[in-house]
Amino acid sequence: GQNIDQPTEMTATEGAIVQINCTYQTSGFNGLFWYQQHAGEAPTFLSYNVLDGLEEKGRFSSFLSRSKGYSYLLLKELQMKDSASYLCAVRGSGGYQKVTFGTGTKLQVIP
Amino acid sequence: DAGVIQSPRHEVTEMGQEVTLRCKPISGHDYLFWYRQTMMRGLELLIYFNNNVPIDDSGMPEDRFSAKMPNASFSTLKIQPSEPRDSAVYFCASSLPAGGADTQYFGPGTRLTVL
Asked: CB contact, 8 Å: B106 with chain A?
């Protein structure tokens, strides 16, 4: 089975840096995704990690440690529009396309 | 491309009624997924198809739920009879069969309320 843990809520200040953690326990591992979901909207893809290390994409970076079952999403130079839920999702061994989502971290950016 | 299309966007029905949700995936995507999202359980995979064939329906909660994909451009998720605990946002997503970061593209969702 799959178990994915993320903090439920976080608050950060505009212009600051925030790190959202995700730990997982899965039967097999074939990649980890981060999605962003604004209230009332669909999730949209942010990043993908399959090897250990840091993937940087503009203001967003994602890190993976497979041995620790751990990932984080780093958001720099926070903007008000970054207020959203951030979903960690893991592809295990239950079918190549089968992805299990965490319950998400609701981030509130304040002025 | 118009993206993944879902209808209706909102559905309010009474307990016991049949509900049909519809999805048109992105053209050329071989995989189609149905998810359900609630505050308590987050985003849960219900079923997914590859080339119109159901691959894994282990997430379908019970026999009241059924899904079909008669062709590459259309899928339905049916709940019969509906119950208040089925109230949730139902998302359809599609993806390419390419390896690696083959991200899923989500539709806008159908917000279902069962009274």
From this structure: yes
